[in-house]
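Narrative summary of target 7.
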Amino acid sequence: MHVIIITSSNNRSGGTRQAIYQAHELAERGHVVTLCLPHNSSFWELPEAVRNPAGKARWLALPADPRAQRSVVESLFPSPDTPTIVHAFHNKAVKRVAWWGLFWRNRNLACVAHRGVIYRPGNPLPYLSPAMKAFIVNSEACARAIRWHCPASKIHVVPNGIPDARVTPSRSPAALLASLHLSDTTFLFAYVGNDNPAKGTEILLNAFAKAAIPDAKLLLIGTSKRWEPLCTQLGIDEQVLHVGKTENVSDYLQICGAFVFPSKDMDSAPNTLLEAIRMGLPVVATAVGGVPEIVANNGLLVPPGAMPALAEALRAMVANPDQRAIWAKNSLARGAHFTMRARCEALEAIYQSVL
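Modeled conformation, tokenized:
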């Protein structure tokens, strides 16, 4: 079938990454896929070989003027009887597709939408639009949030998926440790995120300082140097390593003993957490949004914003190697639920049901 995926987000959000991952996997599975991103998406900064590898989905830049976008999407349509899916990601794209789809009802075409945020929508119209045949949410928590506006028959829970390439390191553990001037006996916690206060970086640094674990270090991956003054203030300069932004997160996860997810916000199914689980890392995470659906018998959950509880969980993770090994094994087993193959198999079934 033809699949047209549209996202209206111009940053490297988790939802846009899922749109990209999904587009490439569906193309690998034999579908004709076009991924439509905003003209100013930060993903256009990636090298061509990464953005658009041979044999995978075609990438297309949408014009800046929203009024011109519909005609661009329609130019991608095959013959009217060819099965076609238009899959929208992010709020503006969902609203537009819910409206545009009303004009496409004479085709063998169905419009669906992805939703991966946990708050009640302010506008019920896209959810009630007869053009929108399915809303694909990535957690049960997310499903509960839209049930006020969306008919239950339209809601499908499909977990996010992580491509194998995202959990395949490009460098050896020895090379990574040498580049960081670390020995293989150092216990490393990994954190992956940005500088958004809702991600809980400040709470994590305070908890790590309070935990006072000898010989343990914390890798901050994806954050800027804005946290260095706080590390100095807390006296943990030598224990916190600022990796910065990287697309090769798995290189660093492979040398870590545990992953920390300290979010204060209502995350639904965070990609960073799923990547760590797919790599078999035990987890310390806050019980927000859909996280309790992911962290089950593979780590520790603490209340969001509870710094003392987070510090205690960090200590417990290091102090119990036998239990940590069990959690690591369980993470690896749970990771099978969060592959792109599993996600796209579920999507194909939904696509067929709504066409």
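The two ends are 10 Å apart (CA to CA).
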